[in-house]
Amino acid sequence: GGAEPVGSFGQVAAFVADERPAALPELVDRLLASPQYGERWARVWLDVAARVRAGVPLHEAMVAQKCFTRL
Fold this sequence. Notes:
Blueprint: H1 9-17, H2 23-33, H3 35-53, H4 58-64
Helix pairs in contact: 3-4
């Protein structure tokens, strides 16, 4: 047992079904408090930084890392 992984199907389904106005702010708070979520995004941004250091324009580096599509 243990906690569900961040972004698991169960968590996504619960969020989609939750019609309360507080659902989104609560989700954001949970994600920001999650070490797994922070680690996931840290890897993405470190990869973006490496691409930029290698001369790739920031926007292209962000698109390459799919920064606009990941949750």
